[in-house]
Amino acid sequence: MSLIEKTGLRLLHRLDPETAHGLALKALQLGLTPSSGTVTSPRLRTTLAGLTLPNPVGLAAGFDKNATALRPLSRAGFGFLEVGGATPRPQPGNPKPRLFRLTEDRAVINRFGFNNDGMSAIATRLKDRPQEAVIGLNLGANKDSENRAADFATVLATCAAHLDFATVNVSSPNTEKLRDLQGKDALSALLAGVMETRNALDRPIPIFLKIAPDLTDAEIADVAEVALSSGIDGLIATNTTLDRDGLNSAHRDEKGGLSGRPLFEKSTRVLAQLYRATEGSVPIIGVGGISSADDAYTKIRSGASAVQLYSALTYEGLSLVPRIARGLDDLLKRDGFDTVAEAVGTAA
Hints:
This protein is of the alpha/beta class. 36% of the residues lie in helices and 16% in strands. The chain has a single domain (3-343), classed as Alpha-Beta Barrel (TIM Barrel). It contains twelve helices and 13 strands. α7 (217-230) links the parallel β9 (207-211) and β10. α6 packs parallel to α7 (217-230), α7 packs across α8 and α9 (293-301) packs across α11. The longest helix is centred in the middle third of the chain and has 16 residues, at 184-199. The radius of gyration is 18 Å and the shape is globular.
């Protein structure tokens, strides 16, 4: 990390976290952040659900909720980007404050509640996207919707023409009863509607399902069964957790979803369980607590075909992205893997 980036992060950490996040997005838009360009190699290039990625290190949803910084993010070293979540209608989300740094724990708690500009505004920005990047959208449901399951299909139909993939997010803890859609019957019905919409597109795109880390073994088995039967193209494991065990920071008891370092082990266990339950037949994106190349490598060896990160950027800055990608290349080489795919699941 450069001195400039260190100084910038130090100044941002003096501000309210949501204000600081807004300024970070503005700095991206103005070209004031590190820009490593594409990070790739024959070893890092990989395929995920038919998508060709320069490297397997992606940006998780939530960082660029409204798709306002697509071009600078596409030059930051990521192999792919996920923006959103997007809902059919704009919504303000939950009252502020709703974002908290847990510096001692290298973690973040948020209770945003799907605040976003709505699918129409986001689709307009996606239309002007950088074509060389791999970009997906996290699909959400309006808090006051009478048919949340239908909301996912509605956003997909509106935005799909400008996407490479889309993610069904039923695992946010910040919209009341949204996680109830992870139940076997409700999830099957929801995905059936989304897949019907996907299959009717002029250009069908891969569909991923993002799940929570706070599932029982039986619930994980149900998710695996639905994933296999529904025809979805992959899973994302995991979203944020409601667990607060072992935290030391002053904000540890704030309501919302916890992300960052404390989530790493829990999310990795769920990832490995899903990999075993699906016998490696459904690609999985591993997310939760990644802050180093070793973390990314652990996720891959636990069953992830690719990884995503977000919270670690709060503490390490954007220069972390190329460091992880290049470090992952070195680890794969060290252990004799010629491709990412060769390493997937080798320690699951």
